[in-house]
Write a structure and sequence with these properties.
Layout lengths: L1 E6 L4 E8 L2 E9 L1 H5 L6 H23 L8 E7 L3 H18 L3 E5 H7 L3 E3 L18 E3 L7 E6 L4 E8 L2 E6 L6 H11 L7 H8 L24 H13 L7 H30 L3 E5 L6 H14 L2 E4 L9 H12 L20
Parallel strand pairs: 1-4, 4-5, 8-11, 11-12
Antiparallel strand pairs: 1-2, 2-3, 3-7, 6-7, 8-9, 9-10
Helix pairs in contact: 2-3, 4-10, 5-7, 5-8, 6-8, 8-9
Length: 357
């Protein structure tokens, strides 16, 4: 099977070509520079950029994979959740290609695809295209499902933070999720309070490496709560009032590094503690993590340390596959198409608010 996958759920246009579990190409064109001016993603601008970028990105992916459209056996696209107009671009394009070629089509849940991204192994980070430049393909990667085992999966991004019990391939159950602000949103909003540009998460990660995580004691929301839910609005509010009452700290670079490290430590502590606790309670010996925040170095380090202490296996999504990408969409679509059952109808619609069950 040779499959074309499209991902346009938010602000990154991505197209991948999958064949027999191998990612032959995964091209990502990012809109970060465009939205930075506005301090966040502007949905209408995102949709327009997807319209502008999708065909060049698809051509780049097919060329990198050495595949002609007529050689495709199936097409997949993100069906939800996401920004409605952004989703529409990739989903309807995918349906159109499938219809024109007379091939099966499958719509994929973005979060469900994240569950399987830690099982995709790649030799090198994916080169990412900046605004207005041509995207480049990732090195060939492959899905290593031979090592798959029941796991607790942490999905952590700008819009969502959740813990999922993955009992077997394509069988999962959400244990808890975001009650208000997601972890990535907290990174970006607290970073803005400290004068950092959007998206602030990468800058906090960089500056925190030079800071003292114990310099300031910020709250760990729901850390002692028995549920698997998350809430980061209280932490964001605590940082807001702290910066208001101590504005002089922002004038010293060292203090800013300490602030970043302290905020990051609070977020990471909650994420790691709840993830490990869920793994213990559900009797699984494997933890996985994915989503954009999983690029954070402190989170990766602390998850590794905690899993080592517990004797758990740990699979982290490659940094190239943490953020939105079509490779994970295509890998999951291929696994679904290998199972009995009809493909998705070509007149299906996007599901912007699709809840992972």
């Amino acid at each position: 099977m040779t499959l074309l996958a499209l991902e346009t759920s938010c602000d990154e246009t991505s197209v991948a070509v999958i064949r027999e579990g191998a990612v032959l190409a995964n091209v990502v064109s990012s809109q970060v520079a465009l939205h930075a001016e506005y301090g966040g993603v502007v949905p209408e601008l995102a949709a327009r950029e997807h319209l502008r970028n999708l065909i060049p990105v698809a051509r780049a992916a097919l060329d990198a994979a050495g595949v002609q459209p007529g050689q495709l056996d199936a097409v997949a696209a993100t069906q939800g959740p996401g920004l409605p107009n952004a989703l529409m671009v990739g989903f309807k394009a995918g349906q159109a290609v499938a219809y024109a070629l007379g091939k099966p089509f499958v719509g994929i849940h973005h979060h469900e695809a994240h569950l399987y991204s830690p099982w995709i192994q790649t030799a090198a980070p994916a080169p990412r295209a900046g605004q207005g430049t041509e995207a480049s393909p990732v090195a060939v990667a492959f899905a290593n499902f031979a090592d798959f085992q029941p796991n607790i999966s942490l999905i952590v991004s700008g819009g969502h933070t959740m813990i999922v019990l993955v009992e077997s391939e394509l069988k999962h159950r959400v244990l808890g999720g975001t009650l208000d602000d997601a972890a990535g949103e907290c990174f970006d909003k607290t970073g803005k309070l400290m004068g950092l540009a959007y998206p602030a998460g990468p800058d906090i990660d960089r500056l925190a490496e030079q800071g003292n995580p114990a310099a300031y004691d910020f709250p760990r929301p729901l850390l002692q709560d028995a549920s698997d839910d998350f809430s980061f609005s209280g932490l964001k509010t605590a940082v807001r009032y702290f910066v208001r009452d101590h504005p002089e700290l922002l004038e010293d670079a060292r203090n800013v590094c300490d602030l970043c490290a302290s905020v990051q430590a609070a977020i990471v502590d909650v994420l790691v503690t709840k993830t490990i606790r869920a793994a213990r309670r559900n009797g699984v010996r494997c933890v996985t993590a994915s989503g954009g925040v999983t690029c954070n170095r402190a989170l990766r380090r602390e998850l590794a340390r905690a899993c080592a202490r517990e004797g758990f296996a740990l699979h982290l999504a490659d940094r190239a596959l943490c953020t939105d990408n079509a490779a994970m969409i295509g890998i999951l679509a291929e696994r679904k198409l290998m199972r009995p059952g009809p493909p998705a109808p070509l007149d299906g619609e996007i599901q912007p608010g699709w809840i992972l069950a």
